[in-house]
Amino acid sequence: MTDQRAVRNVHMAASVLLGYPDERLVEALPVLSQTVAGLPSGGRLGEAAAHLAAFADHVAATPLPELTAHYVAVFDLKRRCCPYLTYYTYGDTRKRGMALLRFKHAYREAGFEVTDELPDHLAVVCELSGRGATEAAGRLLREHRAGVETLLHALRSEASPYAGVVAAVLATLPEPTARERAAALRLAAEGPPAEEVGLEPFSLDASLESAGMAPTRGGSR
């Protein structure tokens, strides 16, 4: 298996595991586990495989109601565990609307249409890679690496098993530069930016509606 193919498989598995846990996840678990078992065992891809295998085992051993309750408690009710990547960089400011459009344009160029989720959801970006547009998805992940690192830190502080899935995604990226590490530390310490004083609050739903997008799963941040 080539490294690129392995990265695609890691991202597709992460996409499934980061989605809302329902019967479809339970049904997909055997194939998903088989895919993870076929990943390389060494290096950073081996690290990613170990994280995914551990989470798959957690899913198999946990009743579905507990999985859904934890998902809602972490991703829907805790702002600092937001799975929407542009939130970390832009908060609820006008700049976030433009960033979301960049995601949408990247998907269009790859022939990928997002219909039931915001385009910056980590699971959606991973799905883009898993469906073949690994280079485009990788660029988006690298551009928002500080947000992914911040999400990982937040999930670990909550002792959430989902931290392993996010760690698996990060393991597919190049080692962070000093600048990227500094950005992640700054974001973790300061949080997302707020709207500038004197401006009307940014309305994410209105911005998405004008761009032809509308969130339908799990709300928005």
Can you lay out the helices and strands and say which pair or pack?
Layout: H1 3-17, H2 23-37, H3 43-61, H4 64-76, H5 85-90, H6 94-109, H7 122-130, H8 134-143, H9 145-157, H10 162-171, H11 178-190, H12 204-210
Helix pairs in contact: 1-2, 1-3, 1-7, 1-10, 2-3, 3-10, 7-8, 9-10, 9-11
In short:
The chain has 221 residues and is mainly α.
Verbal overview:
This protein has one domain (3-193, 202-210): TorD-like. Helix 9 (145-157) runs antiparallel to helix 10. It has helices spanning 3-17, 23-37, 43-61, 64-76, 85-90, 94-109, 122-130, 134-143, 145-157, 162-171, 178-190, 204-210. 66% of the residues lie in helices and 0% in strands. The chain is mostly helical. It is built from 12 helices and no strands.
